[in-house]
Amino acid sequence: xxxxxxxxxxxxxxxLSITVLGVSxxxxxLSQSKMAMSMQQSGLAFDAAExxxxxxxxxxEDEVLLADDTLTDPLxxxxxxxIFDPNADEMSxxxxxxxTDRHMTxxxxxTGSRHVTSGSYQSSMSTKSWSRTAFIxxxxxxxxxxxxxxxxxxxxxxxxxxxxxxxxxxSVVANSLAASVFGxxxx
Length: 187
Hints:
- This is Pilus assembly protein PilZ.
- This protein is α+β, with helices and mostly antiparallel strands.
- 38% of the residues lie in helices and 27% in strands.
- It has one domain.
């Protein structure tokens, strides 16, 4: 009789151990699934931020846009705006300052257009994508005589921040790029 009671206690302990292991495995699996989803969303937001930076360069090299006197490219707009001091100023993805904003949408980039309308960058997992461009300074170009073909040319230095956000998520992913562009020296 004592052995049967002991066997039952032992069986209950084994059953309890198996239950704890099962719950632990399910919890671990759910945690890993959440981490994988978070990594996927971060990757999508980063891709959106990168595409926003690419959009600035697309518009800055768009010959149709550059030939139209009524439209300006993002670097020219930033050059005409407030000078950005990286040591004193901040360029937040949410700051409604004087920075030039460009948006990427699922429609892609088209020549001759300013991409300033907000919209989804992709629809499968809806992401927002926008960039901010600011002028930092004009300086002599390194490694050049600063006179090319008899004209005075300087390097115009900009900072471009791409921002990406997955809809419904509170976080934003940002990437920044400093760009130096040849341009006529200011008088």
